[in-house]
Amino acid sequence: MPERTPMTLFSMTTRAMSAQMVRMNTATSNLANAGSVSSTEDGAYRPIRAVFSVELDRASGLAGVTVGSLVRADTAPTKRYDPSHPLADKDGNVFEAPVDETAEMVEIMESARQYQNMVQALQTAKQLMLETLRSQ
Amino acid sequence: MNERLFGIHGAALTLRSERMGVIASNIANAATPGYKARDIDFNAALDARLANARGSIALGGSDAKLLFRSPTMPSLDGNTVELAREQVAFAENAVAYSATLSFVQGKVNTITRALKGE
Fold first, then answer.
1. In this predicted model, what pLDDT tens digit does every residue of A90-123 receive, in sequence order?
2. Which of B43, B17, B23 is nearest to B84 (CA)?
3. What residue ranges do the domains of chain A occupy?
4. Can you give the pTM of this predicted structure?
5. Per-residue CA distances from B52 to A54, A57, B22 (Å)
6. Partner residue opposite B24 with nearest CB, options A54, A125, A132
7. Which of A99, B42, B91, B110 has CB 3.0 to 4.6 Å from A34, enough for a Cys bridge?
8. Could you tell me if A118 and A64 are in contact, meaning their C-beta atoms sit under 8 angstroms apart?
9. CA triplet B60, B61, B64: central angle to 5 degrees?
């Protein structure tokens, strides 16, 4: 980690919001690739998931969040018999990306709600800080 | 000096600020697998801080003990954050911060008026 400055409430929120953005991007990528087909089982698109991990700053006691890793789901692609499809293999099958649209939509909604939560918390904290600064 | 001027409120304000950071961390990690929600026992931490100040030991960094929150229903991925509880705790802490801040402001105003001789 190149950044060695102590974590503040602001930098923590920034990182948390970036992590939520990555999560939302993976979900939208999955949605965009829903219904894409491939002629081989290995070539089919597999949904991506962001896995969060904790980033503890011992000096301030704050715990931020980052995207620890991006994993591909190991669900098998759906085999569909469609001999007229230009990508069909010699048996007339195409392999469809195993994307669950409903699950992805729920993922996006949850991510958006958590983003909102962070913004709300930061707003409250910022307002209190400003009140403290302006008091004379 | 700080303690004589502001009484309990100076220590309480820093603790409230620390607790705000801890609860914000919990909210940020609401979706992190294996994360355990933490909190500060405010009364115990305040007592410890005041006792520390009376013994005139120099305070270095944070001395508030972080405790793990016991979940109502642990989730499958080991995360113990319950968003509703954290939000209520955050709101309560923000209101208490405001209250403490107005006490500190009142103290400062009193001293200022005494200095000006109004």
1. 888 999 999 999 999 999 999 999 999 999 999 9
2. B23
3. 9-129
4. 0.84
5. 31, 24, 22
6. A125
7. A99
8. no
9. 110
Cβ–Cβ below 8 Å for B32 and A114:
no
Amino acid at B1: M
Number of domains in chain B: 1
Tokens representing residue A28 in the block = 């939208």
* Per-residue pLDDT reduced to its tens digit, A12-23: 999 999 999 999
A4: tokens are: 């060695």
Domain that holds residue B67: 2-116
C-alpha closest to that of B4 among B38, B57, B35, B50: B50
Q: Do B66 and A61 touch (CB under 8 A)?
A: yes
Q: What is the least distance, in Å, from the CA of A61 to any CA of chain B? A: 7
Tokens of B56: 């005139």
